[in-house]
């Protein structure tokens, strides 16, 4: 699992402070999460292949999370894309994109699908053999949800030494990894747990932006490998959170602590601040493993060597 | 008259190749012409004060000319703008912007006006004491017009030596500059031309992007101080002009020659080319005073010292 921060700043985009956009690489997928103005430039800068993006997840319809989407879709057209693209987001996103394509008389040669959400409960958006993507209901000034990306448990790990000792034919290895027992030529049945060990622990990523402090998301995101939680403000401006429906770094860390996540990633910093280290230090007072998102920064979450 | 190129490339924006946007400074106005994705970042980079922009001119509704507009308007809101903003563009631009503001639940505290064009004949968009702005009908894949910015003749220049010789009271100087004759205390009438010289020659700027070669714009733009004319292709790809409704550098230069303009500025280069100097050299074979637009380049057109 690999997370590339394309942009992590709030509100007004600047060349060195891009609005929200991230690429999550999980089980061979390349998911684009949010798409502020300039995202396509950031994709090029980070050398991410446009064609590999097949699913785009938009949290809400504020400009700093979506105004780069129409430009990206137009570029897909210019690049003669032919593979399907699905856009997940709040109701209205389809209208937002189609009106602009219509006015520009641009027609997509690829299949452009929309999956719009209206309900404020977790909804399964995507499922395949290896993962699921579910919405996380958030609370902001407009209808907003985050996204929970969860790997499914994979194969078990083969205990090669045990397999050889029992004389298991290599032709059965695939079945063994899938959890099957083995019947030897002499009729003896070897239980799968004699031949395998637990596989990689499935990883998961929760993206929560933008939102006011919302404790009831904790059960849904408990134990995730990584949580991105917006931290627009420092404690000094906590009084602005209620009106603007944003969080402080300390509040993000409190959610991380309660949800026992692996790593907390902070972002969506207000442009009023110059020193981002203050976000990290305020968060670390509550939750030690707090990190700062930065434009262009890559977080890799590999499996521990067993 | 000062022209700042914010972006001058066609199609897909990249960090070092921004889509079309320009700032024209004329008679105290700061006009924004076209607004591709990332224009607000380019405005910051070029240190242009957002609040000074009161009129935005959009040539057509292709993404590389307009997808930065909604982000810029949103930023105006975040910056608590209170002065009026007028947007001039093809029919549809109002719907394009308002649907996005509505979906983001953003309300402008300033007066946001739209002036939409549908007619393919020159139309006066703006007139004040010092200048006029008129549409230039162009031909592209969607309804497109350029813009002709024309200074009005200003005051006459005072001939100080003559004024002193005739003993004209300094209190009359303002009237004299405005073209009035002067009656001396002894009743003698001094004709204005005895006391003044021709003032600065009014300057003018024609913006023509995007368009196929269209000779019938020549009468309207004849004698302009500067012409920006798109040159998407080199001669080698002239065969693409008809289908895509674009021009070559040579065609742009032919228009410049026929219209006897002062300076031709080329731009809207296709991303297939690496060497922009080829555009200049192909244009200069037809029209010597051909220059290249480049992101961040500033063209100043000052009055010759008399």
UniProtKB/TrEMBL annotation, chains A, B:
InterPro entries: RibonucZ/Hydroxyglut_hydro, RNase_Z/BN. It comes from the Bacteria. CDD domains: RNaseZ_ZiPD-like_MBL-fold (cd07717). It catalyses: Endonucleolytic cleavage of RNA, removing extra 3' nucleotides from tRNA precursor, generating 3' termini of tRNAs. A 3'-hydroxy group is left at the tRNA terminus and a 5'-phosphoryl group is left at the trailer molecule. The active site is at 64 (proton acceptor). GO terms for molecular function: 3'-tRNA processing endoribonuclease activity; zinc ion binding. Keywords: Endonuclease, Hydrolase, Metal-binding, Nuclease, tRNA processing, Zinc. Its cofactor is Zn(2+). Binds 2 Zn(2+) ions. Its EC number is 3.1.26.11. Zn(2+) 1 binds at residues 60, 62, 140, 210. Belongs to the RNase Z family. Homodimer. Zinc phosphodiesterase, which displays some tRNA 3'-processing endonuclease activity. Probably involved in tRNA maturation, by removing a 3'-trailer from precursor tRNA. NCBIfam families: PRK00055.1-3. This is Ribonuclease Z. It comes from Nonlabens xylanidelens. The lineage of its organism: Bacteria, Pseudomonadati, Bacteroidota, Flavobacteriia, Flavobacteriales.
């Amino acid at each position: 699992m690999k997370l590339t921060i394309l942009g992590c700043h709030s509100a007004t985009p600047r060349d060195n402070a891009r609005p929200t956009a991230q690429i999550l690489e999980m089980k061979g997928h390349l998911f684009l999460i949010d798409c502020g103005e300039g995202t396509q430039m950031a994709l090029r800068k980070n050398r991410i292949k446009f064609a590999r993006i097949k699913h785009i997840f938009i949290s809400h319809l504020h400009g700093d999370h979506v105004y780069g989407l129409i430009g990206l879709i137009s570029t897909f057209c210019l690049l003669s894309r032919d593979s399907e693209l699905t856009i997940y987001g709040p109701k209205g996103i389809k209208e937002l994109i189609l009106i602009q394509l219509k006015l520009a008389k641009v027609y997509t040669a690829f299949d452009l699908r929309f999956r719009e959400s209206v309900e404020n409960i977790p909804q399964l958006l995507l499922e395949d053999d290896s993962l699921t993507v579910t919405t996380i209901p958030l609370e902001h000034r407009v209808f907003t949800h985050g996204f929970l990306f969860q790997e499914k448990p994979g194969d078990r790990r083969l205990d090669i030494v045990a397999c050889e000792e029992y004389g298991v034919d290599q032709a059965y290895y695939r079945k063994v990894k899938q959890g099957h027992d083995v019947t030897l030529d002499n009729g003896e049945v070897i239980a799968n747990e004699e031949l395998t060990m637990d596989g990689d622990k499935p990883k998961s990523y929760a993206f929560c932006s933008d939102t006011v402090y919302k404790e009831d998301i904790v059960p849904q995101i408990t134990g995730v490998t990584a949580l991105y939680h917006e931290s627009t403000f420092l404690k000094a401006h906590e009084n602005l959170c209620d009106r603007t429906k944003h969080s402080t770094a300390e509040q993000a860390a409190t959610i991380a602590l309660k949800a026992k996540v692996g790593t907390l990633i902070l972002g969506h910093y207000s442009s009023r601040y110059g020193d981002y280290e203050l976000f990290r230090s305020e968060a670390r007072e509550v939750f030690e493993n707090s990190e700062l998102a930065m434009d262009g920064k890559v977080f890799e979450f590999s499996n521990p060597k067993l």
